[in-house]
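Hi all, a correction to my earlier message: I attached the wrong file for BioF2-like acetyltransferase domain-containing protein. Here's the right sequence:
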Amino acid sequence: MQHFYFVEKPANIRKSMRVVGYTHSLVPSRKLVRSETIHISLRESELSLYLALSEGNRQLLRCAQQEFYQVILYREPSAVNLQAFQQFYNQFAKRKKLKGIGKLQMETILLLNQQGALLLSEVQSICGQTMCYRLDIVHAKKAMSYYEVTCDAAAMATHLQRPLRYVNRFLLWHNLLHLKQQGFILYDMGELTDDPHVRALKQSFGGQVVNVYSGYITLSKIRARLLGVKKWRK
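and the right structure:
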């Protein structure tokens, strides 16, 4: 299977490919699922990116600067790093009754990692306790938010609960600046859901709302049916 990320024009598909996957393509297609995301241009200056933030975000980032965060960037995360992330994410998902990262999702994560297409970042407290993770897909100088998870306040010591309020936004802002410094040109905030809190958070970082298209295309009717069943089961 051939898979394309963030394509801006019709992809050059090898004739031998029976199934082609797309993630957040900008090329409209009735065969793919349309969704909304937010694109943040990393070509802008750091000052322009900062001014595009909501006033609430700027205030929270000023508070975050007073905290003793330890940021760890795993540009080439090991299997152990990713397993630690999976365990942390699934503990949070279990408490919140959300879908965790199962075997199939982990196989995709490991495959992306083999292709050098992942950036894993972590924030630890001053005493070394993990507070937040972000997992981004990185490809062709473009990046996309893939997974994010913040520790449950109930699992933190009392003196760490206040710093926990700022950590997710702090890490996202840190990563935007890091990617910009590495020459990346675009950050995709991930799918905009109907959850008003999620939409508000993503829109508070500025950027432009765009339509993107994801899914699988196959010329085989049998494979198309199988993919349809797979999609329905999700």
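Sorry for the mix-up. Residues 1-38+192-234 form one domain.
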